[in-house]
Amino acid sequence: MKEIGIGMIGYKFMGKAHSHAYKDLNMFFPDAPVPKMNVICGRNEEGVRQAQRQFGWDNYATDWRQLLDRDDIDLIDINAPSDAHKEIALAAAASKKHLFCEKPLALSLADAREMLDAAEKHGVKHMVGFNYRFAPAVQLAKKLVDEGRLGKIYHFRAWFLQDWILDPSFPLVWRLQKEVAGSGSHGDLGAHIIDLAHFLIGDMTEVIGMNETFVKERPIPSAMTGLSAKSSDSSAKGPVTVDDATLFMSRFACGALGSFEATRFAAGHRCTNSFEINGSKGSVKFDFERMNELQVYFTDDAEDVQGFRRVVATDPAHAYMDAWWPAGHTIGYEHTFIHEVLELMHALEEDRQPVPNFADGVKCQQVLEAVDLSIAERRWVSVNEL
Amino acid sequence: MKEIGIGMIGYKFMGKAHSHAYKDLNMFFPDAPVPKMNVICGRNEEGVRQAQRQFGWDNYATDWRQLLDRDDIDLIDINAPSDAHKEIALAAAASKKHLFCEKPLALSLADAREMLDAAEKHGVKHMVGFNYRFAPAVQLAKKLVDEGRLGKIYHFRAWFLQDWILDPSFPLVWRLQKEVAGSGSHGDLGAHIIDLAHFLIGDMTEVIGMNETFVKERPIPSAMTGLSAKSSDSSAKGPVTVDDATLFMSRFACGALGSFEATRFAAGHRCTNSFEINGSKGSVKFDFERMNELQVYFTDDAEDVQGFRRVVATDPAHAYMDAWWPAGHTIGYEHTFIHEVLELMHALEEDRQPVPNFADGVKCQQVLEAVDLSIAERRWVSVNEL
Amino acid sequence: MKEIGIGMIGYKFMGKAHSHAYKDLNMFFPDAPVPKMNVICGRNEEGVRQAQRQFGWDNYATDWRQLLDRDDIDLIDINAPSDAHKEIALAAAASKKHLFCEKPLALSLADAREMLDAAEKHGVKHMVGFNYRFAPAVQLAKKLVDEGRLGKIYHFRAWFLQDWILDPSFPLVWRLQKEVAGSGSHGDLGAHIIDLAHFLIGDMTEVIGMNETFVKERPIPSAMTGLSAKSSDSSAKGPVTVDDATLFMSRFACGALGSFEATRFAAGHRCTNSFEINGSKGSVKFDFERMNELQVYFTDDAEDVQGFRRVVATDPAHAYMDAWWPAGHTIGYEHTFIHEVLELMHALEEDRQPVPNFADGVKCQQVLEAVDLSIAERRWVSVNEL
Amino acid sequence: MKEIGIGMIGYKFMGKAHSHAYKDLNMFFPDAPVPKMNVICGRNEEGVRQAQRQFGWDNYATDWRQLLDRDDIDLIDINAPSDAHKEIALAAAASKKHLFCEKPLALSLADAREMLDAAEKHGVKHMVGFNYRFAPAVQLAKKLVDEGRLGKIYHFRAWFLQDWILDPSFPLVWRLQKEVAGSGSHGDLGAHIIDLAHFLIGDMTEVIGMNETFVKERPIPSAMTGLSAKSSDSSAKGPVTVDDATLFMSRFACGALGSFEATRFAAGHRCTNSFEINGSKGSVKFDFERMNELQVYFTDDAEDVQGFRRVVATDPAHAYMDAWWPAGHTIGYEHTFIHEVLELMHALEEDRQPVPNFADGVKCQQVLEAVDLSIAERRWVSVNEL
């Protein structure tokens, strides 16, 4: 069985999700190459040591450059904060390491392109972490589109709604600072639904957006961990420099009309990552809070029993599910990462590019920036302008 | 256009629902015979006069016997309290009036049978008010069963859940008194789901039940109106003499297993009249709180898109719906009565028995009493024992 | 009891809905003034005679001008095709008749304003037929917003999805011809959700839209009736001159971001008229296909039981519902018109303007045209430009 | 950190679920004692060797008796077929090994009691595998009951619906043979909902049931694996000796009425493990196919916003969830086992009995047999009779 040596940079939310995926992969997909959890890397030694033990890595490091010289590392997994992605990726590619980078690929389209170019130049494989593609219900949607079972696509609408910063006293964590996060809801949540649109129905040609920062100042936190942070009542305040919400409309190359909304101000929505596709022969609806389900409608059902079907995508007929539990036994968020890593391992074994890869990351970044430009200039922007 | 002269006895909840049905029928079903709203009858003159004006009847009466002598009355509509049904029906049949009686047909099986016998002896038409049959989504369920599209039926489960007497301070209204109401949840709610079972999958052969009166004493109301009543804090209390909840299991002649529950103690359920049928080729689910919808599942759907379809039964392909609004424009509770009256008018025009008729009322009463007997004697009771 | 003499022009879909509302109003709202169904008017004598009998009007006419001279007519109800609204309204106002006009008020903003001006000049009352406001669940949403129970509003998103012209062989009915209908999905469906936005959270300041006609030619029908029409296979084709779908984004005066979509190409959606409002203290969601329900979320619910509540708005605590049936017994589409007419009758009795009135119709038209302008000029348009 | 040496007997469906739980436990619950995956045992050497490697065990064995002598084994995990439970448990207890046994504890109540007695006599800890208790949404239901937030409980209804043997050509696997499985739907599915009832609202006092085997003969399979098996068309047939469906009613010590149904003949239901509890102050509803959700209703909500709340039990306020992902990121079936093992490890560390333990297994078996007796004798059976 082929083994792939992994060096992972970052050990917080995504670091945990990736580690778990490596750890569990071969128990459920025994024929996949084995990801060897060699080195986990983080700047804070205490933190990374604890993560090493807890997540099951063989070694840890505090300087990511150390990983590039090791022969036992074939792949660099980059899930450090977004502002560090580019430097690491360029160096790793130069060291002939394959790349697995969390989204957003970079803080700018230019950087993303530079990363893609570097990966191509050095002939390494590259993957970007759009994990939601790997929910079996999303795979089913893709299959229905690809097989023509929804016909010609007219509409794609998607919204990613959260509410974790609704409280104005929630502190100014790094995700609310442009210089670290690059973007707010747009880059964090919007990126996912843009990628799903690309995955499911193809490229967009033009966009126009709007955004807003509803709460313009927030308490500066004394300490930050992951998504959460504490602030005292006496905290000084600092400016929120990213968008709280971004909406945009688009046209797709296939002729469909697109509608997108990403917000962290939708009370009651913890993680509503939803899309709907309407075609000439049918429609599908997905909501990540019920990630095992796809609502499916066909126009050619018998006249008296037409209706959206609630397909619980846990049957053997659904992607990945024969590796898990009997039908009706659902899986969760973390499984999307296992399937993602499965694709990555198989691609490396087969010496092909994994999907989605940096080209998909670039394409997503291109739309993100096209939307930002359309907001800045209050006009429709062709995606090809960028 | 044929006209049918109506004399209606009772003017409360059901009296209003029936009046409305007569009033609206021909606007939406212009080819149906015309129910002439001749006389409405009630014991309280002030009350019945107001109802006459409000509901649109030509005349009123305070003694129901007066209706039997009138030539302009072809049909007696009986929706007075249950303890009055039998006497009226027997007299009306003897006067050669057709009969439309609300459920429960009578306070006992013996009485119900006497009513059926009288109607048959005098050769009059007779209908019983199981209105839920007439929801288009229920009609669709029936159609799917009859056409064999669900295959052999294995399971029928139904529950009618309400919560209007959950509060122990809710007063002792007539529906909680055995001598007037005959029965509690069992006869009021259970009767409906028993009838739906008969309608949808046929006869039961044996039953066993259990029941309970959770709140055994309630304040005696100073005044009662319809379902509601007021009681003062200083009210004396009286015993509740009917069941708050009745459950039973049954076997059907077709081989299916039945499960039934009727309760007024299900917090959060205002009117959850639900059933599910599981067959060898498919299943259906219905909930009256979403009465325009039927959930439908077929085992022969393609492997990757099997799931319950949410059929909104408002298309032209669904019973009655071409008479109403465009697809997707829903109808409500009162429409079940309009469809019921449509069947009644057509049956009278065509000189045939309407369905459901007193035979269905008797059959329902037979099951109700079989269940009561099974509770009293703590044993399985064959429906044919009664 | 006060009586209001009605003359109604138009007798198709809306004519039926209005007639029914007049007919049923006082049965359920006996204290409301009585709408006297005096004259129904239509150009086709056979058709209008049948409607007169079927809907219960005392007289019929084929020339709407005849209605203006009658003393027994206080109110002119205009539900003729949209291109006839203005001429009738101006003449009726000049004749001192009160006005009840279906939406869209007119084919253009200029016309709509002229109608409002005329009504004001002649001192008559005027109402516009935005019936969806009158669903009890929508009224509940309004109440929650007005009482501050949702806090500051951040997001309003709405979509009105239908699928009745999805089939390219569906014929070129009048609703698909700009000169008669004025607009396609935008004016037909979009108008309703724009009005709901105005009703629920107030005015918009700027908009930008996009639209598409997916099927550009359709068979010319041999005969048209209401929404449906027949075409033979050999039918000649004509151009569809209205939009199949229109989307737009907006900003509200209250600071909220808006997202709107109206389409007739959403397979599986017969009549999905939906909106969601997200505020700082809570959210609500509505879907007309389940019109008796409102999903409600409050941020101040106890931490462990936060979630969208499925409120079945049929309790006595909900608008209008004490006039109907016991809790849990749902109502349907046509009831929105009864409540609308209730408002109209009460307003006339109380000598005040009904709500919504022509000013609301103008405001809606203003947004519709602002969106159209934004599409034509591919730019954000301030609503005040128009 | 304390370590617990594990020896596990069985390596199929449950063996995989348990192995995964041991494997993942400390990654998400780093403070829990460490389950050392020492030896996995199965009769088929090839099979168990593969499982050893795939699941991550240090050693394997083919004779379970070998495990009892090992000093590095503190706990015997028994998930072999049900007919082997007793012998292993008795021997293991005698060897002073703690016990973790899958449900059903044994093939008979007598055997189950013997197992409990042995465990108590030898002073070992014992757990039984009722994993569904450990879904966070189920834990929330338990919390609401225990804190009195649902008030006095009136109704408990539960159904466990599957459809995997609906096809009559599905072969005669071991789960359909009484001598191996002990029972059909009743022991397999019914056992789970009986245990949930015990967990949530306490003991039952009397029961009456009914059951059926709809398909009485099935093809004898050539080979069996887990839940699935293949049969050729020419297969000989053998008798199905267990129930396809079992229903029963019950009374609870707390005064509630119970209704239970377990079936493998409910088309469209892959794994609908559902319950509803109605109390004087509120209700809850659960469906395992949406295992992250609990529907919750409170009678003391404001009058105009009463409704079932869809609580997505993934907030930090919900049991276990602070160990997983951010709010709204759901978990799946396998997580119930991780939580179960967490309880087991903590109990061993704290030198207390885990919950649920063999006493719960006995209690469940007692109800199962009481139901079977009630079916055999067609009468109500007091649980204490057994």
What features would you describe in this structure?
Four copies of one chain form a homotetramer. The first copy, chain A, has helices spanning 13-28, 45-55, 65-68, 85-94, 109-122, 136-146, 178-181, 185-201, 333-349, 358-377; strands at 3-9, 34-41, 59-61, 75-78, 98-101, 126-128, 153-161, 204-212, 217-219, 223-225, 228-230, 237-239, 245-252, 257-263, 272-279, 282-287, 293-298, 308-312, 381-382. By secondary structure, chain A is of the alpha/beta class. Chain A has two domains: 3-132, Rossmann fold (3-Layer(aba) Sandwich); 135-355 and 364-377, Dihydrodipicolinate Reductase, domain 2. In chain A, the strands form four sheets. Chain A has a nine-stranded mixed β-sheet. In chain A, α4 (85-94) links the parallel β4 and β5 (98-101). The radius of gyration of chain A is 21 Å and the shape is globular. The mean pLDDT of chain A is 95. Chains in contact: A-B, A-C, A-D, B-C, B-D, C-D. The A-C interface holds A 150, 154-155, 157, 159, 161, 163, 166-167, 208-210, 212, 214, 245, 247-249, 251, 255, 257, 259, 261, 263, 265-269, 278-283, 297, 299, 306-308, 378-380 and C 150, 154-155, 157, 159, 161, 163, 166, 208-210, 212, 214, 245, 247-249, 251, 255, 257, 259, 261, 263, 265-269, 278-283, 297, 299, 306-308, 378-380. β18 (308-312) of chain C pairs antiparallel with β18 (308-312) of chain D, so a sheet runs across the interface.
